[in-house]
Amino acid sequence: MIVAIDGPAGSGKSTTARRVAERLGWLYLDTGAMYRAVGLAFREQGLPVTEAAASGLVPGLDVRLEPGPGGTRVALDGDDVTDRIRTPEASRDASRVSALAPVRAAMVALQRRAAHDYVAAHPDGGVVVEGRDIGTVVFPGADVKFFLVADLDARARRRLADDAVGPASPDGPDAVAAALDQVRAELAERDRRDESRDVAPLKAAPDAVTLDTTALTIDQQVESVLDAVRRVREPSTP
């Protein structure tokens, strides 16, 4: 079984998908991490974000998601880059490179292979996949599809809480307000890029359940997805 969870940044899809997979004992596939790793490769090699550059770079990249301490680890050409891709800069890079057709094609093929290999090896299990085009492009035939949304303010607060950790955290109400304004603007710009790109734009699949997470707790979001999974796995008999 494949569960697809899509949505914009800050909608709660990553945490929800990870916890659903943990509850079910299934594989969690964080496709966004793959694009962040590719974005890191572009940045470290000083390449322009163009299709020509992608065509030369992507075939030689080795991007892997591997289980590790504290959850899934991301490896790029054998190096653990998990911590280096969890930054606002990495998020922006991921959005840019994900619009490139060669990058998209390579990552979609990798995602499909990883999920299908796992399902083949675990016929009674499944995969929970999160991203922005999972239900529309990567797995249009997914058994369960969710599209998570939330208002921009709620998403900005969540993203700020995730990103502003440590000595760089905003200190004082004025600093927090300024940081929140910046995050809100960045999210709005990312939404614009993701929704308007020619390749696999961000949108809900026609058969996806749209879940507004603005006022929901993570537990409520997780239960909504688990309920849908249970209905598919154990359909009621007339």
TrEMBL record:
Record key words, sorted = ATP-binding, Cytoplasm, Kinase, Nucleotide-binding, Transferase
Task: Write out the GO biological process terms.
Answer: pyrimidine nucleotide metabolic process
Where in or outside the cell it occurs: the entry states: Cytoplasm
Q: What is its main location?
A: cytoplasm
- EC class, as a word, reads transferase
- Gene Ontology CC: one annotated term: cytoplasm
Please list the reactions this protein catalyses: CMP + ATP = CDP + ADP; dCMP + ATP = dCDP + ADP
Pfam families documented for this protein: Cytidylate_kin
Q: What is this enzyme's EC?
A: 2.7.4.25
Q: Where are the transmembrane segments?
A: none
- CDD domains, per the entry: CMPK (cd02020)
What is the top-level taxon of the source organism?
Answer: Bacteria
What GO molecular function annotations does the UniProt record carry, in alphabetical order? Answer: ATP binding; CMP kinase activity; dCMP kinase activity
Q: Which residues form the Cytidylate kinase domain?
A: 3-230
Q: Which residues bind ATP?
A: 7-15
Family, per entry? Belongs to the cytidylate kinase family. Type 1 subfamily.
Q: Protein name, please?
A: Cytidylate kinase
